[in-house]
Amino acid sequence: MVTVIDTRDKGTGPRHPEKVNRPDNPRPPLPPWLRVRLVSPPELKATHAIVREHGLATVCEEAGCPNLSECWSKRHATMMIMGSICTRACAFCNVRTGLPKPLNENEPEEVAAAVSKLGLRHVVITSVDRDDLPDGGARHFVRTIEAIRSAAPETTIEILTPDFLRKEGAIEAVMDARPDVFNHNLETVPSLYLSIRPGARYFHSLRLLQKAKELDARTFTKSGIMVGLGEKQEEVLQVMDDLRSAGVDFLTIGQYLQPTPKHAPIARYVPPEEFETLRRIGQAKGFLLVSASPLTRSSHHADEDFARLRAARDVEARA
Asked: Does any domain span residue 23?
């Protein structure tokens, strides 16, 4: 079955009454370059069955990712650990906000078993924010990395972490586990943090990425932002410079898609040619890799991107 779908999720998320699209501020119509094909091959169903068998949450589902059909048909799913309820209420995110449940102590082994059954060469592990935990969930990330290494030693591991705000020793513990890629998304430009990412601090997130590289220079560092929220191009270019100053290797840039009318409104849809311009500028600024397109997401094509990262590092080393 092949169906053309609207990539804007129709689910529910955190309430932001001041952001609701009113009749005088309607959600703009979806442009043709953001319409995706929904396919249902046997592989997609097999991925879904494995995820459900092990009782796992995926950010693909919880955040309403437009690339779910494509990725799951290739048996790629981004596992979201520590539950599906977040302690923050970011204005762009469709993950539920509230009081999370206690950690499932068996989850690391369940994730590892699913990774092994899916036969993944590269896996992305992310999580909700867990400000309620003394370490922000750092130890749970470590246990998950260790479990995957035991069950699927050939699989490379990418982690997309929260900011561990005010959690002493969290980033050190995570980097001691030696993930292959450490990813933490800045999400947007500094001027929009109060409205889009109010529970976070731009320079704390930037310092987290810098600290990760300082702790282990061999680990690739990665970050991503959304565009279409009202940022200015010069602000995006400044974010690029900030990330390069922090030693970040890989930048992703994608279009913000408003999950529901309760979330932050879309300022505009950025055309593909502007994404290509941003990609070229990012490469010129020295990133090993820049992925920029309307449907780019942090874990989209992560396995292919990891191979490209290693190849780019090899080229740089020989230069």
From this structure: no
